[in-house]
Structure formats: C-alpha cells, structure tokens
Design goal:
- Helix 6 packs across helix 7.
- The protein is an all-alpha fold.
- It is globular.
- It has one domain.
- Helices cover about 80% and strands about 0% of the residues.
Amino acid sequence: MRKQIPVLDHINGFKWTVFIISCLPILIALSDISYARLGANPIEALIERSGETALIFLLLTLSVSPLRKILGIPQLIAVRRMLGLFCYCYACLHFSIYIVLEQWLDWFEIYQDIIKRPFITIGVINLLLLTPLAMTSTDAMRARLQTAWVKLHKLIYLIAILAIIHFWWSAKADLLAPMIYASILTLLLAYRLYSRMQQRQTWKSSHN
C-alpha cells in the first residue's frame, strides 16, 4: 500500500495552500503593473498571461484524477473543483482584459474580431462552453442534475482541445509553449482512454 503524503492528511490546510498558490498569478501581475514590468505592450502581455494561466489551470484540473490514481493520493480530488473554478476565473479575466482594455467596450469591433479572427472565435465559444460547467460545479447542482451533470461536465475534454487550438493559433512565432501544452493534453487524453479500456475489460471479465 502506498504511503499517504502527510500534508494531505490535513485537507483544509492543503486546500488553503492551493488557493493561495492559485492567486499568485494575479498578485504577480499586479506587481508587474505597479512596477511597469510588462514590456512595451502591457495590455497584450496581460491578455497573453491570463489566457495561458487559464490553460494551465485547465490542464491541472484534468490532471487531478490521473495523479490521484497513479500516486495513490485520493485527497487530491479535494482541490479539483477549486482548480476548475480558477481556470474559469482566469478565462473570464482573459476575456475581460480583451474587451475592456484592448477594445474599450467597442462592441462592433469585438463582433468583427469574433467573426473574422478564428482564434478569437474559438476563444469565445470556449468561454461559453466553460460557463455552464462553472455554474453547475456545486454539490447541490450535481445532485440535482445527476446523470445530466456527468454528461455536461464531459465537455471539459472538448474545451481543453479547443483551448489548445486557441492558444496555438494566437501564438505569433514561438510555438514551444503550445507544443508543450498540446503534448500534456495528449498524454492526459491517452491516459483517460487507457483507463476506460481497462474498465471495460474488467467489466467484461466480471460478467463472463
């Protein structure tokens, strides 16, 4: 039997630690704004940074279940919802910076961007898909929706694929980061497929 990591025995402390770490990107961004460390185009830097942070939290959310099984740390599940909500918060911040600071709430220009620039189209679609997942993330909504909740939250895999495409298409020259994130998502999807195949094999064996 695998040994449990001691710090995870204190779930509340672990959750608070994850919460504080998850807030760090905002605190770092505020510090960079205060000290003018965002470069020649600070708005673009904030858009890129918030979008990449949202993608990282999305991948972290998807990593919880595989890591929980591989490492034998069931307590990791306690922070999955939190990571998912931080993903949504950073995605909303990403979009808000774009519409407020870059476009100055010029809805015609925003509309033109959405219909003419494919990576923005995908980004908006992704945020719309992510919204019902965030809105139904509570235990009460899960109990209320039951099987519909499970089906709805499977959209996370489509959202992750679209997020990678959005990030890849928005990259200007350096594709290293998009390639790394795409590789991580590929591994996560491959692990999920492998787990599903194992479950089916186990089910078939038990019914023979």
